[in-house]
């Protein structure tokens, strides 16, 4: 079985694929055009897909009717038309759990970096502008006993809540499609409406899966209802926020600050005025960028394809209905 891997992944994943007898096809150049990418996809049976530069939509499935399975090197699958994949009986694997801690670490880091204006102060040092002691300059805020609001309290959100609870004794509120009884029991998390989430949070952190109905959910109207000391943290997907509205809210003091590992658009332009603000910290989508998490993702993605090649169910499947659908 031929598998197209569009970018090199950690050795553990490549070795597993080869040991299982899969023929691995790697591109000569990793910066593929759409046409080059499709050409590779048309010549294989399955794909191990890294990044979300390319969309798996109806047009793709029509063009590459040879594709029998896709293993994503990510937990998110918003660049895949899942309904279309189910219709065509194509399982789509993802990599849950292994990056929950690493991604929540980044959310926790961003929350603190923004609360203490770390990026701004680091930039001052780099610019040779250390300055003398000023009791009133660029003061941060403390997080002890504040309220952390989580939009999408799944595995990553749970890890973020746990850290915040233990480190700063923060109160946890959350808004979800479903109640998270484990978080309620273990962390005293309280389920609230979306309205209450945005009006009561001192820190609002997004950890939900992105779907079309979430497009720019966090916009001018929402920022205006947030507290003036609120820190907005997004390590999920940039599409959740209207970037222009966020910039406006940050410059006119509607909210305190923002910590972003994802932007809209992504990548963010280096001359984006948001990068000049003292109350912002932006990272280049590094949520899962630890050796441990990336090795784990490589292992899960490989295990998904190996199971498929043996006629078994993918152990980590984003659309398990493909199995019940045709069983």
User: Count of DSSP E strands?
Assistant: 12
Distance between the termini: 23 Å
Unreliable stretches covering 5 or more consecutive residues:
none
Query: What string gives the helices and strands in order?
Result: EHEHEHEHEHHEHEHEHEHEHEEHH
Helix coverage percent of residues? Answer: 25-40%
Quick check: average pLDDT? 96
How many individual helices? 13
State the secondary-structure class.
Answer: alpha/beta
Tell me what portion of residues adopts beta-strand conformation.
5-15%
Radius of gyration: 21 Å
Largest sheet: 7 strands, parallel
Give me the secondary-structure topology.
Elements: E1 2-5, H1 11-19, E2 23-25, H2 34-42, E3 46-49, H3 58-63, E4 69-72, H4 82-87, E5 92-93, H5 100-115, H6 118-126, E6 147-151, H7 155-168, E7 171-175, H8 181-187, E8 190-191, H9 194-200, E9 203-206, H10 220-225, E10 231-234, H11 243-251, E11 257-260, E12 280-282, H12 291-309, H13 321-325
Parallel strand pairs: 1-2, 1-3, 3-4, 4-5, 6-7, 6-9, 7-8, 9-10, 10-11, 11-12
What does this structure look like?
By secondary structure, this protein is an alpha/beta fold. Helix content is 37%, strand content 13%. It has 13 helices and twelve strands. The chain has a seven-stranded parallel β-sheet with strand order 8-7-6-9-10-11-12, sandwiched between helices. Helix 1 runs parallel beside helix 12 (291-309) and helix 5 packs across helix 7 (155-168). The longest helix is centred in the C-terminal third of the chain and has 19 residues, at 291-309. The chain is globular, with a radius of gyration of 21 Å.
